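Retro notes
What went well: the complex prediction finally ran end to end.
Inputs used:
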Amino acid sequence: MDKQAKIELGVGVLVVLAAAALFMLAMKVSNFAAVAQDRPTYTLKAHFDNIGGLKVRAPVKLSGVVIGRVSSIGIDRSNYRALVTMKIDRAYELPADTSAAILTSGLLGDQYIGLEPGGDDEMLADGDEIELTQSALVLEDLIGQFLVKMSDSKGDDK
Amino acid sequence: MQPHIEIEHLTFRRGERVIFDDLSLTIPRGQVTAVMGPSGTGKTTLLKLIAGQLRPESGRVRVDGEDVHRLSRRALFELRRRMGMLFQSGALLTDLNVFDNVAFPLREHTRLSEAAIERIVLMKLQAVGLRGARHLMPSELSGGMARRVALARAIALDPAMVLYDEPFVGQDPITMGVLLKLIEKLNHSLGLTSVVVSHDVEEVLSIAHQVYVLSEGRVVAQGDVAAVRESADPYVRQFLGGLPDGPVPFHYPAPPFREELGL
Amino acid sequence: MIRMLRAIGRWGLSRLRAAGRAGLFLLGLLPALAYPFWRVRLLLKQVYNTGTLSLPIILTAGLFVGMVLGLQGYNVLVDYNSEEAVGTMTALSLLRELGPVVTALLFVGRAGSALTAEIGLMRSTEQLSALEMMAVDPVRFIFAPRFVAVVLVVPLLTLIFTALGILGGYLVAVGWLGVDDGAFWSQMTAHVDWQDDVVNGVIKSVVFAVWIAVVALFQGEEAPPTSEGVSYATTRTVVQGSLGVLALDFVLTALMFN
């Protein structure tokens, strides 16, 4: 009988350790806590000329705070521009003249969408589009512009 | 009275080798029947055919009038509860102690209370003289003790027959005596049909009511002990007498020795 | 030349037949898989034998693998001034690859080989035959509990290995090399995805577990009933089990992370 008790104890230890490991992976290591909360969201759209390295599930930030995620990326067939849809936490309402930009966290970091709220009284509703967008900075273009300006050598700041 | 086991025109092959060739024999109820023959004549195979663990190529095995190889799996398992088998090595479950090994068939097949199971197990262990060894593990038992425990397990469900596979192999004289006495006692007191497969001539003949001698897949002698002892068949004479040369030659087939030496 | 071709052909056919037998073996096992759940004691014993007894090796290996990852990751990342990412790197490599794969490999060596030897021994000592004679189906009584136990235990061990590995990386990076504690964890949470990384890793380990269980039990079943046969079968379990895990890992990675 005490052999059976030993087996039960041993299996118990295994299960408790595994549960603790799962808890740690969920809460401390991965974004499970954020996903699991699953707050109600609404959808916004935006067109970009170039999304650079933006990926699905990339964060959408307002003043550096994550308020949503990119839910899909595609091409709008009518104008051949990139169409990005994102899901925004319902808790955050945004003015209709909010602008969106694709930014990079750090020199080598991942790309995310940064939102800049405007001053409009009207708020964006589910399915609305953000009209003012700024594309990702592409290094080649940047260098190209820089060279053009050098050769123009106007001396202006911009 | 209907014989307990009837084997009719049984043929069994292992690869190219013919083990049984049109073998027929009957085993009467309530008696000790010995099946003898040298190693490699398929005596263990015969027991496995009777128990339905192997399928014959042709022929029939009937136990209690039921064709063993025509039964559904469920019916076959039902039949096996009425059979006990003592394996050569004992075949005790290595992770259970003596008590649990004997209790195993009871726990699997009956809904008896633990108290009732304990009584039956102790009774069976008492019958084989190992009630005091109930807490030992199989690895702590000698070969003879393991066989006695296995015997207690084989009779745990009170079967109508017990098949003994080479019960005397590798045992010292005392253990052999104990096993012989046990087989005889069980046969007498419980009226068990016993089939003993063995090549230990004198031991088996001392308890058997009926004897079959097999050679090359066929029965070469049969009858009661006296009849077999007096058989004129040269093969039976060689086997019973333990003669080194005879129909079974001393030499493995080879070209004449002179030829090989170049003489 | 002809003889060689013939030998290759015969070898191929015998492999193919073995694969067929293994498939039938698995098929025969499927209807019995519910049985261990109402004979919980049988199952617990196997979970103990395969799982709890594998814990020491899994715990030790997990800790050391994580510490090595922390050290190596730091040495590379410090050149780019992004040593905070060492947590992310350790966590991702453990969750996606090293956790499931190394756990499976260790499990094959520790528990898979033991299963093969145990079944082979039961066969050679006629215990399986004896069970059949006692009207107990060995598939339900011996094989099914072991199969179910392996499939349950390997994912659990993988979780433990991974979590401990991350802790090992933490010890080295934060405790020893002075990476910032907060940055270590927050970077990790930002980049490790529950679905893509954690769940996929667990799915991998379940697939590995099924493979290991089939190989170990089938080799035990097929082993010739001699001590030589059993030891040879044990070796085969380790070789086929490990190579299969690595091959499956490639296939699964291609399917999941592409």
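What we learned: Chain C touches chain A through 33 residues (CB under 8 Å).
What to try next: split runs per interface for comparison.
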